[in-house]
Design a protein that fits this description.
Layout (H helix, E strand, L loop, with lengths): L1 H21 L1 H4 L5 E2 L2 E2 H39 L1
Antiparallel strand pairs: 1-2
Helix pairs in contact: 1-3
Protein name: DUF3311 domain-containing protein
InterPro entries: DUF3311
Organism: Alicyclobacillus cycloheptanicus
C-alpha cells in the first residue's frame, strides 16, 4: 500500500518537479526559440498542462478505486 502511494506521489508531483527545476540549469544557456518564445519559457509553460496530465495519470492509476468505492457506499445508503 505504501509503495503505491509513493509511486502515485512520484508520478503526480515528482516528475513535474524534476522536469521543471531539474532541467532549468541546462536549458538556461540555450539560445533557441520555439514558436517565437525562448526555449526556457516554452519548457516552463509546456509543463503547465503536462503537470495536469501527470496528476490525472496518478489519480487514474492509483486513486480512482477509492472514489468509486465511496460512490457505491453513498448509493447503498440512499
Amino acid at each position: 500500500m505504501a509503495s503505491r502511494q509513493i509511486l502515485s506521489f512520484v508520478i503526480g508531483l515528482g516528475v513535474p518537479f524534476v522536469s521543471i527545476l531539474g532541467v532549468l540549469p541546462f536549458t538556461g544557456s540555450l539560445h533557441t526559440s520555439v514558436l517565437g518564445f525562448p526555449f526556457i519559457y516554452f519548457w516552463i509553460f509546456l509543463w503547465f498542462p503536462l503537470t495536469s496530465v501527470c496528476l490525472w495519470i496518478s489519480w487514474y492509476a492509483f486513486d480512482r478505486h477509492r472514489y468509486q468505492e465511496d460512490v457505491v457506499r453513498e448509493e447503498e445508503l440512499d
